[in-house]
Specification:
Blueprint (H helix, E strand, L loop, with lengths): L1 E6 L6 H12 L1 E5 H11 L2 H11 L6 H12 L7 E5 L5 H12 L7 E6 L2 H15 L7 H15 L1 H8 L3 E5 L4 H11 L1 H7 L1
Parallel strand pairs: 1-3, 1-4, 2-3, 4-5
Helix pairs in contact: 1-9, 2-3, 4-5, 6-7
The chain binds adenosine-5'-diphosphate (ADP).
Adenosine-5'-diphosphate binds next to helix 2 and helix 3.
């Protein structure tokens, strides 16, 4: 199995690109944000815990998202690999993922980072608020909290994966097709996934 991580600030277009990449390269797309929103809409215990945290732009506990990822990895879908979107988001999550994969003699193959400026994050999320109606997109202070949390807790992963020689950064300001082209061309690993 191949393991690809899609990394970047909120609103960078990770979900959009992950869906396209999953289709093109026969990967299972796993979005922790989507999984958590499903739990919320089903009203499960996890959903109830996650709702207030997400609505206020805070992370849910590492243990919760790690458990969801573990279940996905163990579900053995008939694909060439996984593309994780929005996971890991903290150094602790990245360390647990490395350990989890190492137990099966596997590893993260590549990290693709889609970077946009804070200003573009703001503009895109304000726009998305009108389309998707997510509560965590609706207020400026919550958007700012998510941007601040990204810089404080998620950005350290750039150094983490650079050290492992797995980090690839792409500018996410452009059309969906342009960004998709850049990611697919930049990724020799993806080519082997279809071979
Ligand atoms: P965005 O594209 O805005 O980053 P996501 O759908 O990826 O949105 O995530 C929405 C929210 O779900 C996050 O703000 C966070 O509260 C929660 N979440 C998603 N993934 C994780 C994770 N790996 N760790 C902790 N919280 C997470």
């Amino acid at each position: 199995m191949k393991y690809y991580l899609l990394f970047g600030p909120p609103g960078a277009g990770k979900g959009t690109q992950a869906k396209l990449l999953a289709q093109e390269f026969n990967l299972s797309h796993v979005s922790t944000g989507d999984l958590l929103r499903q739990e919320i809409s089903k009203g499960t215990e996890i959903g109830q815990l996650a709702k207030r945290l997400i609505d206020n732009g805070n992370f849910v506990p590492d243990s919760v998202v790690v458990e969801m990822i573990k279940q996905k990895i163990n579900s053995h879908p008939h694909v060439d690999g996984f593309i994780f979107d929005g996971f890991p988001r903290t150094t602790a999550q990245a360390e647990i993922l490395d350990k989890m994969l190492a137990e099966n003699n596997e590893q993260v193959d590549k990290v693709i980072s889609i970077i946009i400026s804070d200003k573009v994050v703001f503009d895109r999320i304000q726009h998305r608020a009108q389309i998707e109606g997510r509560k965590d997109d609706a207020a400026d202070d919550i958007i700012q909290n998510r941007i601040d949390t990204y810089h404080a807790k998620t950005e350290p992963l750039i150094a983490y994966y650079t050290k492992q020689n797995k980090y690839n950064e792409i500018c996410g300001e452009g059309s969906i097709e342009e960004i998709f082209g850049k990611i697919s061309n930049n990724s020799a690993h993806f080519a082997t996934a279809t071979a």
